[in-house]
Amino acid sequence: MKFVAFERAKQGTGASRRLRITGRTPGIVYGGTGEPSLIELDHNALWHAIKKEAFHSSILEMDLGGKAHKVLLRDLQMHPFKQQILHIDFQRVEAKTRMTVKVPLHYSGEEESPAVKTENCLANHVLTELTVSCFPADIPEFIAVDLSGLKKGVSLHLKDITLPKGVKFVAKGQENPVLVAVAALLVEAEVTPEGAAAAAAAAAAPAADAKDAKAGAKPAAKTAAAKPAAKPAAKK
């Protein structure tokens, strides 16, 4: 994927703010044997470019001053609420240097899997990208994951898939993370008219018993209150 960048003469907060007003985005290119280079890009062109997945996960060809440079997107700073890119960072790519990149996962086939098709389960995508290490020539645009073999109660882990040639997973606390978790869906029992009537009768029975008990308790209390107390015996 190609894009055009221009050399940037001034740096600093004020200069970057003025640059954004003119429709440009400040950036920097670092790494490799050269010194960091200050650049600027057309914001509208950059805004459309970042919507493409390849711009984030593949080697890019940057045209700077009429020369082509192989770079990789490293950082993208967005405005908190505006649709505006505040700053962008690129790293130079060297053919003989291994690089650590994030590669998106493309899942397919879950609708045909036994877990989803016949066992009434849901496939939850736990991870949407993997951090991998490889040489620039081996960086994949994405990693395809086939879910057609998913079964109920069995999650898909990293070791269950085959990574592209030359690509190694970079573990960050988990050697074998879960990629897809299979969860069974709760199925409500079918309610028949006879069952609904029986449930309604069962629910009404306690209320009726409580009403009868309350009605029977009132006369007893009234009789007890109306009965006069016994008079003491007269002294002789």
End-to-end distance, in Å? Answer: 125 Å
* Structural Rg: 36 Å
- Order of strands side by side in the largest beta sheet? 1-3-2-6-5-4
The percent of residues in helical segments reads: 25-40%
Element string (H = helix, E = strand)? EHEEHHEEEEHEEEEEEH
Mean pLDDT: 85
Structural class: alpha+beta
Low-pLDDT runs: 220-226
Largest sheet entry? 6 strands, mixed, barrel
The count of helical stretches stands at 5
Q: What is the count of β-strands?
A: 13
Backbone shape: elongated
Percentage of residues in strands: 25-35%
Write up what this structure looks like.
A six-stranded mixed β-barrel has the order 1-3-2-6-5-4. The chain has a four-stranded mixed β-sheet with strand order 10-7-9-12. A three-stranded antiparallel β-sheet has the order 8-13-11. The longest helix is centred in the last third of the chain and has 34 residues, at 193-226. It is of the alpha+beta class. It contains five helices and 13 strands. It has helices at residues 13-21, 43-49, 53-57, 114-117, 193-226, and strands at 2-7, 24-30, 37-42, 60-64, 67-78, 85-92, 99-108, 121-125, 129-134, 143-146, 156-157, 168-169, 178-184. It is elongated and about 80 Å long.
Summary of the model, kept short:
25% of the residues lie in helices and 34% in strands.
Descriptive labels:
four-stranded mixed beta sheet; 34% strand; six-stranded mixed β-barrel; 236 residues; alpha+beta; elongated; 25% helix; 5 helices
